[in-house]
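=== How it folds ===
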Amino acid sequence: MVIRVYIASSSGSTAIKKKQQDVLGFLEANKIGFEEKDIAANEENRKWMRENVPEDSRPATGYPLPPQIFNECQYRGDYDAFFEARENNAVYAFLGLTAPPGSKEAEAQAKQQA
């Protein structure tokens, strides 16, 4: 399974840049493999992202903004959903991955099952 993060390399928005860096930095720091898909430099990536964000996850007006996160072709969420999962020590579940042994998330899951 490959985590795909759709980003915009040439965004004029500092908020979008910070959110993208936050997601990518977290994935790198936790050694979670991912692919960056640039929607600014590649029209196919932009088109694919826009078509595959579910209706109920789209903004009321305009297009979904990066970062958008997928596991293979399955939509996992946007930055706000990622941030909430991180705050709740549930990023691996959010990404559709198994938490590694010894991680806070794995420990929390073990406590819930006990």
Remarks:
- The longest strand covers residues 3-7.
